[in-house]
Amino acid sequence: MTHLFRLTVKTFSFSTLFSKQQYCFMSTSTSHNHLADDCIFCKIIRKEIPSFKLVETEKNYAFMDIEPLSEGHSLVIPKYHAKYMHEIPDDYLADAMPIAKKIAAAAGFSQYNVLQNNGPLANQAVPHVHFHIIPKPDKETGLGIRWKPLEKSKDEIEAVYDKIKKNL
User: Fold this and answer.
1) Quick check: 11 and 17 in contact, CB under 8 A?
2) Residues 80, 30: Cα–Cα separation, whole Å
3) Which one of 29, 119, 127, 157 is most buried, counting C-beta atoms within 10 A?
4) What's the rounded Cα separation, in Å, for the pair 123 and 127?
5) Do residues 10 and 122 make contact, with C-beta atoms less than 8 angstroms apart?
6) Starting from the edge strand earliest in sequence, which strands make up the sheet with 35-36, in order?
7) What is the pLDDT of residue 146?
8) Mean pLDDT of each 10-residue bin along the chain, 168 residues long
9) Which whole-number Å values give the CA distances from 2 to 5, 8, 10, 25, in the listed order?
10) Is 130 among the residues known to form the active site?
11) Can you spell out the DSSP letters for 11-63?
């Protein structure tokens, strides 16, 4: 069975990333039940597009990023198509971090970031959950982030805490 749904995505190409609207077909008739037909990462998992594979398990696939921020930048992608992390089953997520850990150790990264973005405002370029392992060898190379904490009172923090806690 194939399901059709419309979404706005960033389409990946080897030379550039650009926005466009497209239709995404979710296939449930292959051995990869939870992969989308038109997703670049799903195609990599199905080996329709080549990659520099590092690790593959039943739940995840890890490979080298072809537009690295630093030497050794790699990705871990669940073999389950979803745009947001909260849509991925826990067993796929539980399998992902040990893979990231193994890659960082095998590469000998002394300092690095593990990054996962959710949605375009959070800088997610490919609408398939993925975890970056980005070495940080010096101040200029690797991930650069802005960290500007909000000024919040204890009462404001407690109000948000209560809301989240109620929904857990």
Assistant:
1) yes
2) 13
3) 127
4) 10
5) no
6) 2-12, 17-27, 35-36
7) 82
8) 35 36 37 87 98 98 97 98 98 98 98 97 97 96 90 96 96
9) 10, 19, 22, 6
10) yes
11) EE-SS-EEEEEEEEEEE-SSSSTTEETT-HHHHHHTTSS---EEEE-SSEEEE
Rounded Cα–Cα distance for residues 49 and 76 (Å): 16
First to last CA, the chain: 34
Q: How far apart are CA 30 and CA 37, in angstroms?
A: 10
Of 73, 81, 128, 130, the active-site residue reads 130
137 residue type, one letter: P
Q: Which residues of 72-95 are buried (b: 16+ CB within 10 A; e: fewer)?
A: bbbbbbbbbbbbebeebeeebbeb
Give the count of beta carbons closer than 10 Å to the beta carbon of residue 34: 17
Output the six-digit token pair for 44.
């990599």
Q: What token pair was written down for 48?
A: 């329709």
- CA-to-CA distance for 156 and 11, rounded, in angstroms? 39
Q: How many helices (H) and strands (E) does the chain have?
A: 3, 8
